[in-house]
UniProtKB/TrEMBL annotation, chain A:
This is Zinc protease. Keywords: Hydrolase, Protease. Residues 177-351 form the Peptidase M16 C-terminal domain. Residues 38-170 form the Peptidase M16 N-terminal domain. It comes from Chelatococcus asaccharovorans. GO terms for molecular function: metal ion binding; peptidase activity. The keyword Protease applies.
UniProtKB/TrEMBL annotation, chain B:
Residues 1-24 are annotated as: Disordered. Pfam families: Peptidase_M16, Peptidase_M16_C. Its cofactor is Zn(2+). The keyword Hydrolase applies. Keywords: Hydrolase, Metalloprotease, Protease. Residues 40-180 form the Peptidase M16 N-terminal domain. This is Zinc protease. Residues 13-24 have a biased composition (Polar residues). One of its GO terms (molecular function) is metalloendopeptidase activity. Belongs to the peptidase M16 family. InterPro entries: Metalloenz_LuxS/M16, MPP/UQCRC_Complex, Pept_M16_N, Pept_M16_Zn_BS, Peptidase_M16_C.
């Protein structure tokens, strides 16, 4: 078996520090005349005030709706005239901004990006328009089984914590957010101190250095983020049902996970791969889908929220067989703790994880996004080069310990949307 | 495998632009297999795809869903490799794989480190004519497909509206039948149905091999000769026998009213030429019309309905033209609270009429063309995207040249041509209008 070192390594990652002291990670690549840039600010929806869930998402949605001297309409026109792609969003722990431009439009692209990050207008008409758009999305999902199951999962798993709130809020909470809330969150959320930057494409380090200062030097040095308290997934063993008149039950299940910096994280990642992470080869895929035809999709993943690392999984099966599907899933979790994995299974999981790492780096946008996540997680600029060796170094004993820590702690929290039978 | 039947109404462009990009080569093996090689030397990875020129629109009567069901069963083993072996090998090499079915084609792909390309070709060539599976895998896999349909359609009123719109737009042609099939017909699909379909369509003459990545054309040719080259020719490629859609002198309306709907929505679908049925360059003009009328936040519809009149939260449109027998032009919008779908529909019609009255401005035309030219460059950043673009275009009978010239032909379209297709197909066309409505008390 050939095990290649991450081929992204063949595109060396450079650390660029601007004259003004702003750091970015750069993969310089001139084959195609484009530049992809990804930035992140720590913070995100966990910063939403109580009763005002959705503020962080609304703020992100407004950044390209008017900035500097440009109204929303004018700003969008400037982007479109040069086919510049600019997107912002919030997740529970951070805000993300992604820029893609042809090299020949880089001046305009970086200028618009700077305006959006540092001088958003938050015009009242834009606030109302984007609020209405998010509300429409919330209404669209109001009785969608997937959305309901996900929302209920976080409500139960993170009860009493900011993570319990949906990132885009609720119809009530989003209605309570004022323009001042949005402006204040931008002021305290975006700074050079909680900023991470990755760039991929046709740009050299010296040019990027100058760009970084243009882009970010108007931001405050430090953010004023509210502390987010640590939490362990709650309501273990609970079965929560969201009643919905649909023929299929959407199931979510979860257990406490492992923090990204946990020494057992990689071993846990492999354990998850064996259980339900591998697309066609996982135990759950075999048992739930292949052998029994219970579901089209069954998956598990580690979801390392910064203050509440989670293990979660899901499936969707007709109401009549929901109990059976859940029994199979719980049985497989228990079997992995009790009997562990076979040598062959373990070796194959490692081979897959090592061999497939290169596939995460085949487009500029994907590389930039990976790099920003590596930076946020504090894994180091050389992580891409080290990562496959880390997978390779996990021992059977590590795997057993990680599986025990992940899956040995009791019954999972289970949330179902639908009319399940047999739970 | 967790195959994604391409949603019939994906906002995808026709050959979404590639033009002066990579040095694509194309050749044909003696058994009729067409091969396309797309170089991308930035990473030592290869994307390997086999496309068959048959899709759900080739499902025999009463057997809707058979193309898609067979796609699932293609993972159930061959005479030489038992069920699951191919997937195990792909996984152990760190590869990714999947398959998908659309109206006009079915495709299988793997993405692997380039040195494993030959292995992928050996397995994929083997299942081109070696499929063999037992009766006992059929039942559970049919259940998987039924769960897939429940997940995608039976629990989602929006998807039910999309099905109803297609079924009303196409009263005779099989594009009116969902790719995944109707529930009651999927329930009756058998092993024999699948194998009969397989024997008819899975032949080298009916297939296209697309390899994108860090590979040389000569190397791909040599590997293909050793693998696919051994699959015996079957003579002529299979014939697609599909009824032609008549032009009805009738607009139609469909409504899905459901208690799960809290955000109303409306869509208009128009029957228009596809890239294969167009006269002249209608398809290119329709592409630009869709972009100017409904592409993003600078579009005519977004500006009028969302920004100026403030009656909609979203509004847009797209042209679905990459199809063998007919294209669709789509306009959609979601109202703000308190605005009825009837009022929104009237406003859309008025906005379209006003736009066609005044014609396309230079600014609008340039902006739309700039977007398509940029997309051509952005597409080159993804070998998987390029492989899909070439594969889908060839599978509906376009040539490599058509894909390469796409941007050039887009750039040649004039403002008058755009207005003309708008007048003819949209304003004077017969819309099928769909409403998604809450069940009000």
């Amino acid at each position: 078996m050939t095990v290649r070192e991450s081929s992204a390594a063949s595109r060396a990652v450079q650390r660029v520090v601007s004259p003004g002291g702003i750091e970015a990670w750069l993969v310089e690549e001139h084959a195609i005349p484009l530049i992809a840039m990804e930035v992140a600010f720590l913070g995100g929806a966990a910063q939403d005030a109580d009763g005002k869930a959705g503020t962080a998402a609304l703020m992100a949605g407004l950044l390209d709706e008017g900035a500097g001297d440009l109204t929303g309409d004018q700003f969008q026109e400037r982007l479109a005239d040069r086919a510049i792609e600019l997107h912002f969003n919030a997740d529970r722990d951070s805000w993300h901004g992604a820029l893609k431009t042809l090299t020949r439009h880089a001046d305009e692209a970086f200028d618009l990006f700077r305006l959006a990050l540092t001088r958003p207008r938050f015009d009242p008409d834009a606030v109302e328009r984007v609020r209405e758009q998010i509300l429409a999305g919330l209404r669209h999902e109001a009785k969608d089984p997937d959305s309901l199951a996900n929302r209920a999962f976080f409500t139960e798993a993170c009860a009493g914590h900011p993570y319990a709130h949906p990132v885009r809020g609720t119809i009530e909470s989003l209605g309570a957010v004022s323009r001042d809330d949005v402006t204040a969150l931008h002021r305290r959320g975006f700074s050079r101190g909680n900023l991470y930057v990755a760039v991929v494409g046709a740009i050299d380090a010296a040019t990027l250095g100058k760009r970084l200062d243009q882009l970010f030097s108007d931001l405050p040095a430090e953010a004023g983020l509210a502390p987010v308290s640590p939490l362990t997934l709650g309501n273990l063993g609970k079965h929560a049902i969201v009643d919905l008149d649909v023929p299929q039950s959407v199931v979510r299940f979860g257990l406490p996970g492992l923090a990204r910096q946990d020494p057992d994280y990689m071993a846990g990642y492999i354990a998850n791969h064996i259980l339900g992470g591998g697309t066609f080869t996982s135990r759950l895929f075999q048992e739930v889908r292949e052998k029994r035809g219970l579901a089209y999709s069954v998956w598990t993943s580690l979801h390392p929220l910064r203050q509440c690392p989670l293990f979660m999984g899901g499936t969707a099966t007709k109401n009549e067989r929901a109990g059976e599907a859940l029994d199979v899933i719980k049985g497989e979790i228990a079997r992995l703790v009790k009997d562990g994995a076979s040598e062959e299974e373990f070796a194959k999981a490692k081979q897959f994880l090592i061999g497939s790492y290169a596939l995460h780096f085949d487009t500029s946008t994907k590389i930039a996004r990976q790099l920003v996540h590596i930076a946020i997680d504090g894994l180091g600029i050389d992580y891409i080069d080290r990562r496959n060796a880390l997978v390779g170094a996990v021992s059977m004993e590590d795997l057993r310990r990680a599986a025990q820590r992940l899956f040995g702690g009791g019954d999972p929290l289970v949330v179902v949307a639908g009319r399940p039978i047999g739970l | 495998m967790p195959s994604t039947p391409l949603a019939g109404l994906n906002p995808a462009h026709s050959p979404s632009a590639t033009g002066g990009g990579p040095q694509v080569s194309s050749f044909t093996l003696p058994n009729g297999l067409q091969i396309v090689v797309i170089p991308d030397r930035r990473v030592p990875v290869a994307t390997h795809m086999v496309w068959y020129r048959n899709g759900s629109a080739d499902d025999p009567p009463l057997k809707s869903g058979i193309a898609h069901f067979l796609e699932h069963l293609m993972f159930k083993g061959t005479a030489t490799h038992p069920a699951g072996e191919f997937s195990q090998v792909v996984a152990s090499l760190g590869g990714q794989e999947n398959a998908f079915t659309s109206y006009d084609y079915t495709a299988y792909f793997q993405r692997v480190a380039k040195e494993h390309l030959g292995t992928m070709m050996r397995f994929e060539a083997d299942r081109m004519n070696g499929l063999a599976f037992d009766e006992d895998v059929v039942g559970p896999e049919r259940d998987v497909v039924l769960e897939e349909r429940r997940m995608r359609v039976e629990t989602d009123p929006g998807a039910q509206l999309a099905e109803a719109l297609s079924a009303s737009l196409f009263v005779h042609h099989p594009y009116g039948t969902p790719i995944i099939g109707w529930m009651h017909e999927i329930e009756g699909l058998t092993r024999d149905d699948a194998l009969a379909y397989y024997k008819r369509f899975y032949t080298p003459e009916n297939a296209i091999l697309v390899v994108a990545g860090d590979v040389e054309a000569d190397e791909v040719r040599a590997l293909a000769e050793e693998t696919y080259g051994r699959v015996p020719a079957r003579g002529a490629p299979p014939e697609r026998r599909r009824p032609r859609e008549p032009v009805l002198n009738a607009s139609r309306r469909v409504t899905v009213t459901d208690e799960k709907v809290e955000q109303p929505y409306l869509q208009q679908s128009f029957l228009v030429p596809s890239s294969r049925t167009q006269a002249g360059h209608e398809s290119y003009a329709l592409e630009l019309l869709a972009e100017i009328l409904g592409g993003g936040q600078t579009s005519v519809l977004y500006r009028s309905l969302v920004l100026e009149q403030e009656i909609a939260v979203s509004a847009g449109g797209y042209y679905y033209g990459s199809l063998l027998d007919a294209g669709q032009f789509i306009i959609h919008a979601a109202p703000r609270p308190g605005v009825t779908l009837e009022a929104l529909e009237a406003a859309i019609n008025a906005a379209v009429a006003a736009f066609l009255e005044r014609g396309v401005s230079n600014e609008e035309l340039e902006r739309a063309k700039t977007r398509f030219v940029a997309e051509m460059v952005y597409a080159q950043d993804s070998q998987a995207h390029l492989a899909r673009l070439y594969g889908s275009s060839l599978a509906i009978g376009e040539s490599v040249e058509d894909v390469k010239l796409w941007t050039q032909r887009i750039e040649a379209v004039t403002a008058d041509e755009i207005r003309e297709v708008g007048e003819r197909f949209v304003r004077k066309g017969h819309a099928v209008t769909g409403y998604l409505e809450p069940r009000s008390a």
